[in-house]
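anyone seen this seq b4? input:
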Amino acid sequence: MKLSWKTFLLWSLPIMIISFFLWQGFLTPTSNDLNNNIANSRMTYGRFLEYLDMGWVKKVDIYDNGHTAIIEAVGPELGNRLQKIRVELPASAPELITKLKKNNIDLDAHPAKNNTAIWNLIGNLFFPLLLIGGLAYLFRRSNNTNGGPGQAMSFGKSKALFQMEAKTGVVFDDVAGIDEAKEEFEEVVTFLKQPESFTAVGAKIPKGVLLIGPPGTGKTLLAKAIAGEANVPFFSISGSEFVEMFVGVGASRVRDLFKKAKENAPCIVFIDEIDAVGRQRGTGIGGGNDEREQTLNQLLTEMDGFEGNTGIIVIAATNRADILDSALLRPGRFDRQVSVDVPDFKGRLAILNVHARNKKIDPKVALSIIARRTPGFSGADLANLLNEAAILTVRRKKNAITLNEIDTSIDRIVAGMEGMPLIDSKSKRLIAYHEVGHAIVGTLLKDHYPVQKVTLIPRGQARGLTWFTPSEDQNLISRSEIKARIMGALGGRAAEEIVFGDSEVTTGASNDLQQITSMARQMVTRFGMSSIGPLSLENEESNPFLGRGMVSSSEYSDEVAIKIDEQIQKIVQECHQNTLIIIQENRVVIDRLVDLLIEQETIEGEEFREIIAEYTSIPQKYEYAK
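predicted toks r here
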């Protein structure tokens, strides 16, 4: 097994320290003669003078520069046997020597040896020499790694993860749901492996590819797949690693990164979250960040400056393309911009097939049903969904993931954790009427989504929930569909008004009213769906560097603002009246559904529609998966 330098220092330093103290304790000669004449007992100085007056002391040996004495004495208290006794002498006792000579006591003095100072000097130099040796080793290793003296701290060196043969464990077969993006990069990989097929017709390798998409759609995963397929040197770094508190470090790291890339061309350089360093220059209230702008300028120069980067493909990923500098996006730097969007039904099904490989799923579970019930889920959301279902399966002590665990996991991801069921009968009945109001209006309107289920089980901040199955195409919405959504959102409030009266209306519809107002306002100001005319009076463009909602300047006069408010109020009132009519005409079936919902706490969409069909006809909706 190869021992790294960090492991060596980790194990060697404690051993050296322990050895040093053992060496100091056992090898440093303090007074060898004193150790050879160890006394069996000790005696005070006053008692020693009494022994001396009684004539019991026969011999005295003085050590440690007159601080310690070993006496040989014999007497009745000592059993009339000659014994060695240790005596600590005071600092100043001039009468002792005189008294010893007067009593003819055998006296001998033992001076300390002179080599103690040498040993102390060696001991004091041990740790400084060890520290200097360790620093010298680190400097040498740093120089050998980075290729230049004086770079021990390596502030200006790139922190890119470099792999000559990029074995990330991910290939194109492991990436699903983004077929268009895969096709773009398969072409890049082919260019790296077989450049002659492109150069034969005069084609040049693209210098950069920018991945744009929401979080969790698989941008980083796709970059790993490119590295796994290309079998070329692969550099991976995050945009935030360029910028430090030291001025000029970011630009230095960009230079160092591309220097290494040129030495290993052809290769791939992947920059994740490039918006951390590539945002627009000269922005912000107090001026731009000068260090970030220097780093961006160096990146622009390296990608398409006076010196070309032949054979280097830069792949960058971001979910904030709106804040990137325009000079960074032009052809010659990022020749291609690949959009990685949230997957559609087929994409979700393919992603579920990938993540279900290592999951034990019940054979009765159809992944197509899960894909149909999860519109708007990204690849990361779907991976998290199956993982949550697997955890819930273990918690319920089952052997395989069933559709019940998957449904519960979807509810948890979308709405939050499941709360305690309601006990208060009055509150429970009021919430039941509210949710059934949403569901029955959505069911009886042709342009509304079909009901998936109605439940009184609290999740998150919601005391009850009505789930609808959205259609796959969310890009184009008609006027009738928006009005159907407004009426469906008003169904809960309308049911409270019809059943309990205006005085008993609760605050449960506060979130519904916010959505209603927003949809009605967009109909008037953005979509031109009012008597004001086909005008776009508001847009979503804003300055991201001034904060969300910080700039709210209107682009129309006060007279137009009054007309906008009138049209919004007209749309909401019209939808409200139509919703009240639906609730009044179907009061009988609503009461039956409420009683059933209170008893079962959850009604599935199929059962809900079957009960309504006994009382009235249900309009034919678009096809959806059951």
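The CA atoms of residues 62 and 158 lie 69 Å apart. DSSP finds 22 helices and 14 strands in the chain. kinda curious what u guys think
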